[in-house]
Write the structure tokens for this entry.
Amino acid sequence: MSAPISVLLVTVGGKRFALDAREVVEVLPVVAFRPAGTGPKWLLGLFNLRGALLPLVDLSIIVDGAPTASRLGSRIVVLRLDGDLFEGATRSVGLLVPEVAGLAIRDFHANGAHEGFSFAGAPHLGPTVADEEGTLQLLRCRRLLEGDAALRELPSLSADGGIG
């Protein structure tokens, strides 16, 4: 049985993607960040969110291979990623996206939907549906960074949102 979910719609490289709204904490304008200087290309660095330093990840590099161009509509989507990705801890991560298109409700298990991909290098590519604007693919946020140890080495967030 299918169940529609609330999603945040984003556009990357002319393609439409959806982020599960249950994992979205907030959407921010782009702010200054401290560049990482090393690590994977998609890890831009750290930014300060009300006293907590969070990793900033470029979604465009992950799904399109090119960095997000600086635009007025670019945003940082703060995600809460729970579970085994960070050894059971809750971790917030900023996701730099070129454009946020709004909120929607979509059923990614509806008749005619494609179930997504599970091959190495693309575990984040979830189900795809067709709607009135074309195709829309759900990104499995928890899997965007899975298997990459770079973020596992960052300090944990305490319950009050500070670094612990």
Summary: Helices lie at 59-64. The radius of gyration is 16 Å. Residues 5-153 form a domain with the OB fold (Dihydrolipoamide Acetyltransferase, E2P) fold (CATH 2.40.50.180). The CA atoms of residues 79 and 120 lie 23 Å apart.
